[in-house]
Amino acid sequence: MTQRLSVAKDKLKFVLLEGIHATAVDALQADGYTQIVTSPKALTGDALVEAIHDAHFLGIRSRTQLTAEVLQQAPKLAAVGCFCIGTNQVDLAAAMHLGIPVFNAPFSNTRSVAELVLAEVIMLMRGIPQKNALQHRGGWDKSAAGSYEVRGKTLGIVGYGHIGTQIGVLAEQLGMRVIFHDIEAKLTLGNASQVASLDELLAGADVVTLHVPELPSTVNLIGAEQLAKMKPGAHLINASRGTVVDIDALADALERKHIGGAAIDVFPVEPKGNDAVFESPLTRFENVLLTPHIGGSTAEAQANIGREVAAKLIRYSNNGSTVSAVNFPEVALPEHTGRSRLLHIHRNVPGVLAHVNERFSQAGINIAAQYLRTNDDVGYVVIDVDSTTSDAALSQLCGVPGTIRCRVLY
Ligand SMILES: NC(=O)C1=CN([C@@H]2O[C@H](COP(=O)(O)OP(=O)(O)OC[C@H]3O[C@@H](n4cnc5c(N)ncnc54)[C@H](O)[C@@H]3O)[C@@H](O)[C@H]2O)C=CC1
Ligand SMILES: O=C(O)C(=O)COP(=O)(O)O
């Protein structure tokens, strides 16, 4: 049956920043959404607030910083889609308290990162970055000195999640020995083995590659102390987040030639756009492969991410489902049942559901179905009622103490 949303699809505004792939626009249009504003750039400050002040849905990638202050200035915002893996650029707690679920694409670009890292392992072990730089200057260094096969060498993976595991599998196919360190006990794939500590990994690996999220606990995870524990001449790869490595300490370790080379894709401060200047203490080292945060930037990954995150925003908009939201109670919902559906987001204080049910009962409103999930801070309840009672139901629902947001979906 045709679903009639209480707000027509052509009244809902989607703002997609940072050059999100056209597959996202295609998916939204195919579902009947017409108000889609796109921008190739990340926005900051007043420009960001101006762009999203009347948006119902917002799509970003890794650069747009959604602070509590910014989110508060987007009163209509119903959900955020991060068209990438990392969600550290969003104040997730603030979004949750404002009743805004945040979705991401947890694995659409993992293969792209894994392939790049694998290529970098080989490039670093062969000393290609410095040979390439020399040759661009007219030099010629045909020599086997400092150049090694990866077969039989040890790859140390820090963070054995979606990306780390794929790299482990691919590296073993090249004949590498794989060890990893993770704060969780993990199912090991292939012949990989989990070592007891970060120190043990650093002491045993010929190449260390980082695949942890940005968290308070991963800031400067690799600093001077950790670099000193790496084998002399070993290589470091970081395609996770810039804050994970102390760049000055890395520059120092490279200067002293304790570290043989590095491949760095992410930086503590990244240029705001392709027309901005890149500055880093690492630019002076020819044995460092520098890339502009393109680990996940392939045609395949971006097209898949566009479809995947757009589908999550569409499902939340059409149906209310929060499955796979990263900051919100996850409620899985059946498709449209021919009744009216009401959404209620509330502070998770005792008695909210009792209040809802008491109010509905007193108003003579029959609840056909009710779905509830809570986390420590917020609750999300979805209620299906007979369509003739939806107005009365909404006014009861919005009067419940602790309400953050309430609306009729259809
Ligand atoms: N350069 C790029 O373009 C891209 C970068 N990324 C970054 O890569 C990160 C990792 O991605 P996934 O593998 O998908 O994440 P994931 O969540 O699947 O895996 C992360 C792993 O790190 C582990 N971990 C967390 N803290 C740790 C610590 N202190 N020490 C050791 N292990 C720790 C977790 O237990 C988990 O197993 C993302 O959070 C994102 O920031 C992701 C995609 C593209
Ligand atoms: O997926 C991620 O977390 C990334 O870092 C990729 O970010 P991007 O979409 O290329 O800005």
Quick overview of this protein structure:
InterPro entries: ACT-like_dom_sf (IPR045865), ACT_dom (IPR002912), AHAS_small-like_ACT (IPR054480), D-2-hydroxyacid_DH (IPR050857), D-isomer_2_OHA_DH_cat_dom (IPR006139), D-isomer_DH_CS (IPR029753), D-isomer_DH_CS1 (IPR029752), D-isomer_DH_NAD-bd (IPR006140). The chain is α/β, with parallel strands linked by helices and about 400 residues long.
Number of DSSP-assigned strands: 16
Parts with pLDDT < 50 across at least 5 consecutive residues: none
* Main sheet overview: 7 strands, parallel
**What's the helical proportion of residues?**
25-40%
Structural class: alpha/beta
- Beta-strand fraction estimate: 15-25%
User: Gap between N and C termini, in Å?
Assistant: 13 Å
pLDDT averaged residue by residue: 96
Instruction: Give the neighbour order of strands across the main sheet.
Output: 8-7-6-9-10-11-12
Rounded radius of gyration (Å)? 25 Å
Number of helices: 13
Bound molecules: 1,4-dihydronicotinamide adenine dinucleotide, 2-oxo-3-(phosphonooxy)propanoic acid
| Shape estimate | elongated
User: What is the string of helix and strand elements?
Assistant: EHEHEHEHEHHEHEEHEHEHEEHEHEEHE
